[in-house]
Amino acid sequence: EYLLDWSRSHPLYVLTLSRPELGERHPTFGTRIRNSTALTLEPLDAEAMDSLLHGLVPGLPEELRVTIRDRADGIPLYAVETVRMLLDRGLLERDGDEFRVSGPVEALEVPETLHALIASRLDGLEPPERRVLEDAAVLGKTFTQRGLAAISGSAEADLDPILTALVRKELLTLQTDPRSPERGQYGFLQALVQRVAYETLARRDRKARHLAAAGYLEREAGLDPDEIAEVIAAHYVDAHAADPAADDAEIVKAQARDWLSRAGERAAALAAPEDARRAFDRAAGLADAEEERASLLERAGEMALSANDAVAAEEALRDARARFEAAGLPHDAARATAHLGLALWALGRGEEALELLESVLAVLAQDEPDENVARLAAQVGRIHHFQGDDETAKQRIELALEIAEEQGFPAVLSEALNTKALLLHGRPNESRALLREALAIALQHDLVPQALRAYNNLAVIAMNEDRDEEARAATEAGFELARSRGDRWFAPSLGIGLIAELLMDGDWDSAFALADELPLEPQTAVSSHVYGCVLLTRVAYERSEPELAESWLARISPEVGTSSDVQLQNITLWQRAVVAIGERRLADALPLLEDLTQDLITQDLVGLAGPIFVDAATVASDLQDPSLALPFAALLDAIPPGRRTRPVELCRARIRANAAAGREEHDAAAEEYALALATARNLSRAALLGPVLVDYGRWLVHTGRTEEAAPLLEEARALFEQMKATRWLERVAEVLPSREPETAIS
User: Is the pLDDT of residue 633 over 80?
Assistant: First the structure.
């Protein structure tokens, strides 16, 4: 003000920066100067903050950059001071022209410089304003005036002028958008201000306010407490943490545990298994009794399985099992063991799972059978089947069914019927009937995992029987149920079924787009998930995209290569064949494909072998000796006529046609090519039709009938251009080069 008074007659440009409360502390500042202008600076947007951080610390990992940006709330100083704190603590260091993280950055603290700065600003508030701000900080980033009144003990009317002042000072903001569901709510303009205000509270005051907030939300907020169970639980957890040695600490801890458990069940019902797992895990950490902690850990493990996190599931379920045993509850331990076996199987450790499960079942078989014994027997039978021991699987499944039928355990009944259907090799009608009953039981009792498994198995059996529409319907219904209920175990399995459909239809772009949306884990040992990875690897090679192929191969767990699971062994053979073809080691691929075809026929899984049949015929042709594929045709001949699908018939005809063409047996070749083409058109599958068109066209050109070949090859070219299948386009070009556009004559 002195400078402004002194410089009235001088051409000086004065720039000052201040907080909004300047007007209250210096009401005359700027008002006596005619040519003064006040500008309110808005926080920087995300793009500007990103630009600032890129310039300040180039090379900062994206996750850390986003965390710093978001907590800065558009205030450059906050971002700069946070970076400075990381540098001072040796968590960031310069590496040439960039910076890299050099230590664990788990939870970003408030830098001391900012803490002092914000605390100083809070100290400058009027006492009632500061108290209200501290109360509000306990409620969270946003809050209602009614909630604030409940924990502060003040009347809502008394809070009006204080809240208005805090909004004017830009410490709080009021949501006034009539379209917003949060209209009328207050919120902290900056998250760091809320945090510092919260941290300045004494622990005893912090606890009292959290308990008041929890009580208000439970009884007075006018909301269904279960809908906000996670918020209520958080207040009880924080209240206990604020004073864990208090006289009522055990009571508060029990309330926190109960509400965390309710929050877990609520999250599970809302298809959020990751949130549910975290809630149950935290609740278990607050349980004192072994039995209660074990039960909560078991629920956490179940949710981890639903979230497709077998590693976390194993950890939680092992702990739960050990605690049940320590509490002298062998049947409860058996239930946890059944889930643990599934987690181990998902990790590719089927033998370990069976050893554990069988040892527990042997002990419990001497007791009265109950649901836990039945559940364990069903799980043992399921894994025995995937380990290739169907005889033992049948014994265990019959035990599970006997107990479940007699005592009325729908979950076990559905699960056991699911597995029994898979044991009926060569009897698809019985299998389908059992699976439909398993599905009906699961849907009637809202047993989502069992229903999803039934949908998945119904789709596989339908594919084996050449019932494409039925397979698609089961896959789509299961996929929608999995997504709506948050099941990340079967969602990838059923989603991969849809991907296989898209790939066969030639819509490869959509297949990759759907694959990117699936909740696949970074490394998987679940057979259906691994199958999908190999399927997409194969197509990436067809597109001449080796890096994309390698990225999908990297999603396969190393455990798969040594697994005793028969399905994983099959897929490993296919993976090796796909890589050999992708790397153009064609001679290495043929014996692998032949062994795989034999295994799939033996295991009654021919419906999954469409791409394998295509590759066998193609590799033999690329090796200039189509007769090399005749052993595949012989294997397919051995399939009983009633079980030969149209893709099988197509493959047989294509192999025989190519072999006849190679031997110059043109009459036989013409007959087989005509059959193959008619079958392919009947199937209406672009990925099956295209190779037949190329083979047929190549033979027609070889026999001097180029005009007949041209439309077939042009049709193939159009199909493969849509797929971006560059390797097939190369084959087409070898037979029918692309026509150059005609030049106009002037």
Answer: yes
